[in-house]
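Review form for a predicted model. The reviewer records the input and the model, then writes brief findings.
Reviewer: anonymous (R2)
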Amino acid sequence: VALEPRTGAVRALVGGFDFDRSEFNRAIQAKRQTGSAFKPLVFAAALSRGQTLADTLLDEPTVFLDRGASAPYQPENYTNKYYETLTLRAAMEASANIATVKLLNSIGSDAVIDTARALGITSDLQPFPSLALGAFEISLMELTAAYGAFANQGVLVEPHLIAEVRDRQGATVHRVEPRVHDAVTPQTAFMMNRVLEGVISDGTGRAASRLGLPLAGKTGTTDNNTDAWFVGYTPELAVGVWVGFDEPRSLGSKETGAQAALPIWQAFIEQAYADGTDEAFALPGGIVQVAIDRHTGLRASAEAGCDTIINEVFTEGTEPTGYCSRAQHDLLALPYPFQRYSLTESGALRIPAADLAKILDHEPNVFLIPDVEELEAHTADGVIRIRIERNFAGEEPPELSRRLIQRYDPETWVGRDGRQAHIVWLR
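Model under review:
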């Protein structure tokens, strides 16, 4: 599907490869799981509620518990690795599954569904954590129009195939007036444009960066490579591609959104813009740009380690106030179980004694130096020493939560690297 975000006019549509064999229009009538192509709607919901692209999430083995669920939910990343501490921008570029489910949980499933509805998604969506990873079926037309709203400064124009009807004399007897409404703010739309441009330049859609156009988009792949998606846009055109079988089955072990759908999208865009374009995504008022450290999400500083700088965009008033420090970078160099804990104002890692003991049992390259209350970690970047504050008990979970956890065997909740999974209660 290719449509104009500003008018909603569908400029091109392919519903199948042979109309004589099947009149079923897959672009409009088929609904399939979208995989990671749904993630931008989760991020748009978070940005609409005050989160920023510099906020951080810890991508680690995680078990999500729901008091009403029959079993825990433990998603994994497509790459079978853990990305540790990520900014929201980095989480989108890496298409980090665990971080995205955590993001959904931080704002609530209902907030994501509300944003999806505002962006024109009418298909059935349910408030489960798997919503974050595109587990519910949506049509290609719906998802392409939703992305188009980002290109159109947050305004959704209802897609339509017919502009007007004329009689035999050429007089207009009916003109289509598509519904138009504000789906997200212009500021949220601009931040989505920027982060999805990052997917093209530095993420799973980087193969399209060679076109040299203002492009934004996202790949999507479902379990067993059953569905492959790429939905992307320029300021003038939103294009969505889905690849799959009518009877769901694997496309092949390597047929991801980037391998199966992106090349089709890229070839279409290349022809549509054979003469190029000078138009960029419109910058609305109320946006500020701040130099931040890419890893911590804090303002850039002259301290050692804080030299990986990017210029990030924020809704005015939400930009970070804190500055990157050496202690923050040292914390991110430790194994990710330590990254669950925060630093004191003086730069010491505040970790309960019982938690510290459990983590050290599984971390052979990290040692406690009790005389000076420091940890010594032997990392790929060398030896790191960080002060600790451990003389407190930490928070005990409520009695109900403890009883519910005991229904399972939490010792079996481990990541693919053998480390103990973190437990998160669903909102």
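Findings: The mean pLDDT is 93.
Further findings: Residues 372 and 387 are 8 Å apart (CA to CA).
Recommendation: see findings above.
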